[in-house]
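Hi everyone, sorry if this is the wrong subforum. Our group has a chain we'd like a structural model of before ordering constructs, and none of us has done structure prediction before. Sequence below.
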Amino acid sequence: MSSASDLGLPVDGFDEQARTSDMTTSTRIGDTAGTGQYAEVNGLNMYFETHGSGRPMILLHGGLGSGEMFGPNLDLFAKDHQVILPDLQGHGRTADIDRPLDVRLMADDIGALIEHLGLDRPDVVGFSLGGGVALQTAVRHPAAVRRLVAVSANTRSDAIYPEMRAQQGQVNAAAAEFMKQTPMYELYQRVAPHPENFGKLLDKAGESMAQDFDFDDDVRGLQVPTLIMAADADMAPPSHYVEVFGLLDGGLRDGGWTGDGRPKGGHALSILPGTTHYDIVDSPLFPATAIAFLDAE
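Answer:
Right subforum, don't worry. Here is the predicted structure as tokens:
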């Protein structure tokens, strides 16, 4: 799930007309120019950008952010891949609709986007909220996903540090006034189709984060090669991500000289040193590790 502290990184402004129509425009994140447009999926007018060329990859942002949060690291992903960069329900340039913020529903949006764009089994990479959505996309639409990278995605609510759960419980519209100096508020006011709805987004995010969840059985059933990635000082202890790796047949035995003892599904684990939940997507280790896994034979 996502933390209310997930950050969006500011870039150039976005034309007002493109906020509310299907018109195509361009934005720039890092040094990679991308083409932005909208797709009607599951009753959602979803904004997405396309960057680079090559094997397709869907890159999913964290809570209260947008695709902009990947900053210059997007250039590294788009160097040899076609990166599809959506804004999830109620985030960035995608207006909210009348339903909860639920990673399973948002995963169905990504499945519908894959079908809408005619993508041939793209890789799916997601961070925090986007990591949960990426995981559920692979669970619910396994035939549509080639490989999965779930970054800082907790599979059980009880794995999150208690003090973080307490902070998440304070996220609601009343906090909007106190967030006016934050990058999340600045981003939403600059790009959202309805910037006056920031408080409503906080209410929905708070309601979502207040729910207990346990997706361990979903992880056990994953049918696509999956990389579990986290910071060494993440929102949950490193042991949680090791446990998730264990659900994927990882860490149960010696890998062997030829790798025969590695997880049977081609899964992998990476804990990035010197990072936290709030800066892991800024680390050059993030794209380097993800791309190495996605491009492995």
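For your construct planning: Strands lie at 25-29, 32-41, 44-51, 55-60, 81-86, 123-127, 148-151, 226-233, 268-276. The first strand starts at residue 25 and ends at 29.
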